[in-house]
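Example (one chain per record):
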Amino acid sequence: MKLSKKFEAMKLTTLLKGKYDKGDAFITVHAGAGGTEACDWTQMLSRMYLRYCERHNFKASILDIQEDEGGYKSITIQIKGSYAYGYLKGETGVHRLVRISPFDSQSRRHTSFSSVYVSPVIEDTIDLEIKSDDIRIDTYRSGGAGGQHVNKTDSAVRITHFPSGIVVQCQNERSQVMNKDTCFKMLRSKLYNYKKEKLDAEHKAEAAEKKDITWGSQIRSYVFQPYTMVKDLRTSEQVGNINAVMDGEIDNFIQSYLKWSQQ
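Predicted structure:
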C-alpha cells in the first residue's frame, strides 16, 4: 500500500467513533423486487462484498444461504477484521440494478432491487437481555454443500424473537451447539440495531422525515446499460468502472459516506 493510501486509511479511522465501529460485522443481503433477476443481483452483491473483504484482509464466513433459481434469496456473512463494522455500516440500504437481463430471451432492460443490512457483532459482555419466553428455537437439516453432516442431522438452527419479529438462522457450523451460539450472536447484533433505531425515532424530531429502507428508497444505483455507472444517491459519489466496483473496489463509496455522515 502506498504511503498516501495508508495516510488516507488512517485519516478515515478518525471518523469511526461509534461504539462498535472497531469491531466485526454481520452483513445480510436479501433479494427484493425482480424475481430471478433480484436473486442473481443478490448473489452479485454478495460476491462484491466477499471480494472487498479479500482486498482488505478481512475474514469472511458465510453463515447462511437461501438459494433460488438464478442466485440467492438471501445470504448472511460474518466479517472479522479491524473496523469491519465501521467501514461497512454505510452499505445498509437498498441497492438498485439496471441492465439487459441475461434471463430475458428478448434482451430487454430490467431493474432489480436487493437490500443490504449491516449490524455489529455484539459480545456477550454487552447488557442486552434476551428472555427465554421471548424466543423460539427451531432446528432443521442443513441444505447445500457442507460435508457428511449436511442433511443427516438437524444441525441448522433458527431463532425467532417475538417482540421484535427478528428471525436469524445459521447452518454453517458442523454442530447444532455451534450454530446455536452463532445465532444468538446474530440476534444480539440485530436487536442492538433494532433498539437503537427505536431510540433514534423517539429522540429525534426529524425521524419522521427519514426514509425507510424499502424498495423505493435505494441508496445506490448500478447501471450496466445503456451506459456504465455506479452512483450513491446520498453522497453523489459515482464511478464509471462498474466491473471494478463489482470486483470489490467500493472504497470510494465507503470513504465518501463516512465523510458525508459527519456533516
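Caption: Confidence is low (pLDDT under 50) at residues 146-151, 205-213.
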